[in-house]
Amino acid sequence: MSIRPILIHPDPRLKTVADPVSDITDELQRLAEDMLVTMYDAPGIGLAAPQVGVLSRLIVLDCARDEGARPKPYAMFNPEVVWASADKNIHEEGCLSIPETFAEVTRPAEVVVRWTDPSGDQKEDRFSGLWATCIQHEIDHLKGVLFIDYLGPLKRQLITRRMQKLKRERARTA
Ligand SMILES: [Zn+2]
């Protein structure tokens, strides 16, 4: 298992629609493990394959972050929201590809998600609270959508400019 570099916005790969996974190869299983290690190391609660430069429909997450909580890692291939509640929730979101930036985003409070697990089994479950927000945020990544796309254009431009600057600084010190 190894930690993979996380792409920072703006990057064309973060704006690209990811391809469905038809066959869960050893390579993709390894990728899922690497993504979990990368996510815990960051630290974060979710990560989508495009964020490590792989344009496949795969997300990982673990929102069990209460103190003393046992880790509850998920790796979901081809995840899909099959039902969303009319009730909305507002959460302050962040993203490992947009460091140190947070903003409130409104999304359905509860969702039912269908996915394929790493052993190829079909799963379906209902998620609420932080889990629901996180899953929807990660599935958005597979569509090339970032949480800042829900903000107004001025705010988005400001954040994008700040990220461009951050990337230039990181390139200089690398
Ligand atoms: Zn994100």
Neighbour order of strands in the largest sheet: 1-2-3-6-7
The unique ligands bound to this protein are: zinc ion
Low-confidence stretches: none
Rg from C-alpha positions?
A: 16 Å
What is the level-2 CATH architecture name?
A: Alpha-Beta Complex
Helix vs. strand class = alpha+beta
**Shape annotation:** globular
GO biological process, one term: translation
Protein name: Peptide deformylase
EC number: 3.5.1.88
Pfam family, one: Pep_deformylase
Structure, explained:
- The mean pLDDT is 96.
- A five-stranded antiparallel sheet has the order 1-2-3-6-7.
- It has three helices and seven strands; from the N terminus they run αβββββββαα.
- The longest helix is centred in the C-terminal third of the chain and has 21 residues, at 153-173.
- It has one domain: Peptide deformylase (Peptide Deformylase, Alpha-Beta Complex), CATH 3.90.45.
- With 174 residues, it is of the alpha+beta class.
- Strand 4 and strand 5 form a beta hairpin.
- The structure holds zinc ion.
- The active site is at 138.
Secondary structure blueprint with pairings:
Layout: H1 26-41, E1 46-48, E2 58-61, E3 74-84, E4 88-95, E5 98-108, E6 110-116, E7 122-128, H2 129-142, H3 153-173
Antiparallel strand pairs: 1-2, 2-3, 3-6, 4-5, 6-7
GO molecular function: metal ion binding; peptide deformylase activity
Function: Removes the formyl group from the N-terminal Met of newly synthesized proteins. Requires at least a dipeptide for an efficient rate of reaction. N-terminal L-methionine is a prerequisite for activity but the enzyme has broad specificity at other positions.
EC number: 3.5.1.88
